[in-house]
Every structure is written in C-alpha cells, then in structure tokens.
Design goal:
Blueprint lengths: L1 H24 L10 H5 L11 E5 L2 E4 L2 E4 L6 E8 L6 E9 L4 E11 L5 E11 L12 E7 L10 E7 L5 E10 L4 E7 L3
Antiparallel strand pairs: 1-4, 2-3, 4-5, 5-6, 6-7, 7-8, 8-9, 9-10, 10-11
C-alpha cells in the first residue's frame, strides 16, 4: 500500500510540475495578443482598401525580425492595421507567401512590456493559412520582437516571442529564433516575467 501512495504522490508532483512549466511558458517580456482580424486575414490574404506600395518581393521585416521566403513572387503591401485587436493602428507591411500559405505582418510600433511599461520596437507576426506547408492549424501562428538587454526586463538581448493558437491565446513564450529553412519561429528557452 505504501508503494501505491508513493506512486500516486510522485505522479501528482509530476503533473504539478508540468502545469507549472506550461504556465511559465505562456509568459514573456512583451504582452501581445494578435487581433482576430489579422488571424482571419489568412482566409483572404489580400490588401485591404487603402493599402499602398503593392509589389512582389521575398522579404519582410528588418534586422533580426526579418524573413526571407526565397520567393520574389510573393504579394507585398503596406496598410494601416490593428495588429493586436485593441484598436492600436500601426503602419504595417504585409506579405502573403502563397507557396507556404503563411501571412506575415511587420511593424515598428508601440509595444507593452509584461510589467506594464511601453516601449517601441519591431514586431514580426506569422499566421498560418489553410493547407500551409507546415501542417499547422489555420489562424494559429507566432510573433517575435527584438529586444535589447533589460528592455522590458529582457535578461539577454535578442529575439523574444510567443506561439499562439487559432484563438490568439499564447501557448509558449520566451527567447526565440527564426528558422530560415522553413520560415518559422521556435522557442529556444521559456522565460517567465
């Protein structure tokens, strides 16, 4: 009987640790949740009324927050967009990668630190479309920002971001890197702020 109680206690402790890790992984130095309008754009990824600078190109973003899709035939445009769904309009570059079925948005904008202060920075967002090459759920995706040391209390300089589900809820956050082989983002170290 003692072994059974020990096993149940050990199992309960492992579940508690796993829950704590999941809760910890959904925090980062920037408080951002993509707006549902942006996520729905993958259903019809085309310029909104009033969009400018429409062209074809392979890249979007700048510095560490840049993706090169390798396809110079991708649709690219600039428009005023509510990236966070909170009514904060940003001048955003948009790129639809038609072969990978991923919509990218990039803006230099005002961002909210997890501790409540605001900062300016670059944000790159990737939203998976239907039948995307990575097999991800349409409307889910990721975002990354480049932070300096101690900007929003970042412990190291570099990229930070989150992966989110089709409802925009953060699933995993932390230090991040862009995978240039598949133009996707990976969390390399979970962080809690």
């Amino acid at each position: 009987m003692n072994r059974f109680v020990f096993f149940v206690s050990l199992l309960a402790a492992q579940f508690a640790l796993a829950a704590a890790c999941l809760a910890q992984s959904a925090n980062g130095p920037i408080s951002f949740q993509p707006g549902s309008d942006l996520q729905k754009r993958v259903l019809s990824p085309s310029p909104a009324a009033g969009a400018t600078k429409q062209s074809k190109q392979a890249t979007i973003g700048r510095g560490q927050t840049m993706i090169d899709t390798g396809d110079a035939k991708n649709s690219f445009w600039n428009e005023a967009a509510d990236l966070d769904g909170a009514g904060n309009i940003a001048n955003a570059d948009m790129l639809w990668d038609g072969s990978s079925k991923i919509l990218y948005a990039f803006a230099h904008t005002n961002l909210r630190c997890a501790h409540g202060r605001s900062t300016e920075g670059d944000i790159l967002i990737g939203v998976y479309g239907k039948k995307n090459v990575l097999g991800k759920t349409a409307g889910s995706g990721w975002w990354v920002v480049e932070l300096a040391l101690n900007q929003c209390q970042a412990p190291l300089p570099g990229l930070y971001g989150c992966k989110f589900d089709a409802q925009g809820n953060a699933m995993a956050c932390g230090r991040a890197e862009l995978d240039t082989r598949i133009n996707d983002m990976a969390i390399v170290e979970s962080t809690k702020f």
